[in-house]
């Protein structure tokens, strides 16, 4: 750590007028003519090495991975299951315990994989719904009604669900963009 030093007093070499002139000179801007030609920078070699933005995503290679996982789990399970009778015949209890442990690990891995695939499917469905909802203002009223029906089915709402019934009661004829503006204020006719 440094030791504290006494304060120093500095004198200004510039007079106050010169300092004000320097400040004005710094704050000025340069105006460019609108007729000057614009020359873009030459592309960098790194930019040339990148693939074009128009290229699509690479194709997915799921089947090979799925084949390897299912094949490995299936063969491992078969090996462990067929080893149990041999271990029981020879009274190798520790071998039986290890084989049951291996089977349970493979089973837990398979269950977690299936759960994750279900979550991914639900996530894809939510992503598709989100993109459809983003395009909702551009769609026709019939398409919007069909989307509401699809949401009702996805949420597993019954036809007599109070929220669905409230939505149907709130839906008015003037909401569809067609219809007579003079009859928009009239309540829907009740079935008699």
What do you see in this structure?
The protein is an all-alpha fold and 192 residues long. Among the domains are: 70-123; 135-171, no CATH class. It contains 6 helices and no strands. It has helices at residues 16-27, 45-49, 62-89, 93-134, 141-154, 162-170. The radius of gyration is 37 Å and the shape is extended. Keywords: Membrane, Transmembrane, Transmembrane helix. The chain crosses the membrane at residues 63-84, 96-114. Residues 168-192 are annotated as: Disordered. This is TIGR01620 family protein.
Features of this protein?
mainly alpha, 192 residues, disordered C terminus, 6 helices
Terminal residue distance: 93 Å
* Structural class by sheet pairing and helices: mainly alpha
Proportion in helices: 55-70%
Radius of gyration, in angstroms, nearest whole number? 37 Å
| Biggest beta-sheet profile | none
Low-confidence stretches: 178-190
Shape: extended
Summarize model confidence as the mean pLDDT. 77
Quote the beta fraction.
under 5%
Transmembrane segments: 63-84, 96-114
Protein name: TIGR01620 family protein
Region (Disordered): 168-192
Organism: Vreelandella olivaria
């Amino acid at each position: 750590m440094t030791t504290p030093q006494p304060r120093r007093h500095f004198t200004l070499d510039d007079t106050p007028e010169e300092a004000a002139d320097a400040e004005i000179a710094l704050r000025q801007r340069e105006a460019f003519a609108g007729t000057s030609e614009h020359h873009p920078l030459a592309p960098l070699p790194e930019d040339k090495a990148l693939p074009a933005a128009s290229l699509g995503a690479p194709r997915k290679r799921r089947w090979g991975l799925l084949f390897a996982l299912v094949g490995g789990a299936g063969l491992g399970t078969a090996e462990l299951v067929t080893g149990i009778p041999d271990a029981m015949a020879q009274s190798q209890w520790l071998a039986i315990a290890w084989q049951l442990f291996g089977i349970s690990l493979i089973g837990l891995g398979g269950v977690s994989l299936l759960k994750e695939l279900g979550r991914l499917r639900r996530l894809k469905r939510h992503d598709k719904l989100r993109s459809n909802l983003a395009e909702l203002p551009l769609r026709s009223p019939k398409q919007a009604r069909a989307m509401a029906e699809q949401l009702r089915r996805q949420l597993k709402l019954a036809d007599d669900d109070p929220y669905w019934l409230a939505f149907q009661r709130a839906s008015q004829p003037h909401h569809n963009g067609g219809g007579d503006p003079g009859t928009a204020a009239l309540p829907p006719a009740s079935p008699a």
